[in-house]
Inverse folding.
């Protein structure tokens, strides 16, 4: 029975689970396909889950430090990096407290990131609205890498195909005054 489990595990590791090359290709999603609030929510989720391992380490250190000071600075209750061989391990309640502190810290980091990104986005919009009339707004995009686009013979200073430089009024960034 044990050999069968190892054989199945080995088969899962050796045999790819995809349907070939088509399953492995990534698709690039245009930035306007999803509303802004969903992209902000996705970024917040990524930041929160990405910071969670670090906040777990910090939360564990904080909870163990509080326990150390609550027990009269007894050397058996030192926090993890300083704990000796005869140290007392964390109780179940302390572990849950550490995870709670870590979750709260991750959410706070994600919220701070959201506020900073929102502020920078609003400042960029405000700066674009305050441009004088007729000021061109240039959007940078990567140049296409296909061979047929490379040999068009266009001037190096011209925008890539499909991209035109527009003015602030054309982009809708400056309110029209009647």
């Amino acid at each position: 029975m044990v050999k069968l489990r190892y054989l199945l595990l080995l088969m899962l590791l050796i045999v790819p689970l995809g349907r070939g090359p088509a399953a492995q290709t990534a698709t690039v999603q245009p930035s306007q396909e999803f509303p802004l609030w969903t992209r902000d929510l996705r970024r917040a989720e990524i930041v929160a889950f990405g910071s969670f391992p670090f906040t777990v380490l910090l939360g564990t250190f904080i909870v163990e430090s509080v326990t150390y000071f609550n027990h009269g600075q007894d050397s058996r209750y030192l926090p993890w990096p300083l704990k000796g061989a005869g140290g007392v391990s964390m109780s179940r309640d302390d572990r849950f407290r550490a995870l709670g502190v870590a979750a709260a810290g991750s959410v706070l980091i994600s919220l701070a990131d959201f506020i900073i990104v929102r502020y920078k986005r609003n400042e960029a919009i405000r700066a674009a609205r305050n441009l004088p009339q007729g000021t061109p707004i240039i959007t940078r995009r990567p140049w296409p890498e296909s061979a047929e686009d490379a040999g068009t013979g266009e001037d190096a200073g011209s925008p890539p195909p499909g991209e035109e430089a527009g003015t602030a009024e054309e982009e809708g960034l400056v309110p029209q005054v009647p």
